[in-house]
Amino acid sequence: MHIKVSVVRVILAGKICYAGNRRLKIYGMLDCACGKRMKMENRVFFACEREAVELGYRPCARCMKEKYASWSRKF
Q1: What is the pLDDT of residues 31-72, one digit of tens each?
Q2: What's the whole-model pTM score?
Q3: Radius of gyration of the chain (CA)
Q4: CA 25, CA 56: separation in Å to the nearest integer?
Q5: Which of 67, 71, 69 is nearest to 18 (CA)?
Q6: Any residues with CB less than 8 A from the CB of 33 and at least 6 apart, and which?
Q7: CA distances (Å), 17 to each of 46, 47, 56, 64, 72, in order?
Q8: Helix (H, G, I), strand (E, B) or coil at 69
Q9: What are residue 29's phi and psi, to 5 degrees?
């Protein structure tokens, strides 16, 4: 419970802008419907997009369509 309250405070303060799925290595916007459905134990949070990319996460195809298209063209 304590960890959840701390994360909410950081999100509301604007210090966290992106969330990701640890297992699938996907990141996206905090309000993405796909992200809201993921299991709590798979959630990770990022302060910036660069942080997610450096850790090997790819953009979400639903909430970040343009960035996903750019990412997928590399393969």
Answers
A1: 999 888 889 899 999 999 999 999 999 999 999 999 999 999
A2: 0.84
A3: 12
A4: 7
A5: 67
A6: 62, 63
A7: 6, 5, 17, 13, 22
A8: helix
A9: -70, 155
